[in-house]
Amino acid sequence: MPYQRIVLAVDLTDESIEVANKAAAMCKAFEGQLTIIHVIESLNYAYGGDVPIDVSDIQEQLQTTATKHMAALVDQLDIPVESTIVTQGGIESEIHRVAEELRADLIIVGSHGRHGLALLLGSTANGVLHGAPCDVLAVRVKSSH
């Protein structure tokens, strides 16, 4: 059965375009629809509880920056993108939630080297695999470092 509804989860690092190009190729091959999601881990969630300062301005800045980076990523693809989603929360749970809501056939994530945010996505790729409502494809990308 071909994949018709593909969810691409990106961390918006430089390597994201590699993963996005693979997702675009799969969409072309299967004539599927691509939704791209980026999850900003909420600071409260990341630190396991209440943060003693108001982080709403920081979260808003992160949202604005991520939305701009997402638009730039989409502009580099040679296929139409069904939708883009920038959301906040637990990374794996948000990816699972969106995949369920869209009745996705496939989630694509990058599997990165062990540096910076890529370390987070490396563990995220594993987290997405467990508990996913559909197939998961981890695309190995070369580290830029």
TrEMBL record:
Signal peptide: none
Lineage of source species: Bacteria, Pseudomonadati, Pseudomonadota, Gammaproteobacteria, Oceanospirillales
Native species: Marinomonas fungiae
Pfam families (UniProt xref): Usp (PF00582)
PANTHER family membership: STRESS RESPONSE PROTEIN NHAX (PTHR46268), UNIVERSAL STRESS PROTEIN A-RELATED (PTHR46268:SF23)
GO CC terms in record: cytoplasm
Quaternary organization: Homodimer.
Localization of this protein: Cytoplasm
Domain named UspA: residues: 3-140
Protein family per UniProt: Belongs to the universal stress protein A family.
InterPro entries: Rossmann-like_a/b/a_fold, Universal_stress_UspA, UspA
Keywords on record: Cytoplasm
Name by which UniProt lists this protein: Universal stress protein
UniProt-listed Gene3D superfamilies: HUPs (3.40.50.620)
